[in-house]
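Before going further, learn to read the protein records used in this course. The integers have meaning only within a learned vocabulary of local backbone shapes. The record below shows the convention in full.
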Amino acid sequence: MQPDYDTNAPRRHVNLTANSDLVNMVRNEKGNLSALLEQSMKTFLAERELMRWQEANKVSFDSYNCMIDERGPLSEDIGLPL
């Protein structure tokens, strides 16, 4: 899957504050703080995208769940095991 952002965009310096104990622990483990931040930002954006998708499709989910509550799973109609 292709990222939704420009992977060749120039790097940008940012000022951050973080728990000093966590920073020290990551550095002691030879962790890359910049890479960890970028991965965290990707995860954050993916979670937000999922939340927006779920919200945009909430009516469909609710309708499907109501149908299942009333009629049971579709697999019951064709004899598939649950």
Q: What stands out?
A: The radius of gyration is 22 Å. The chain is about 60% helix and 0% strand.
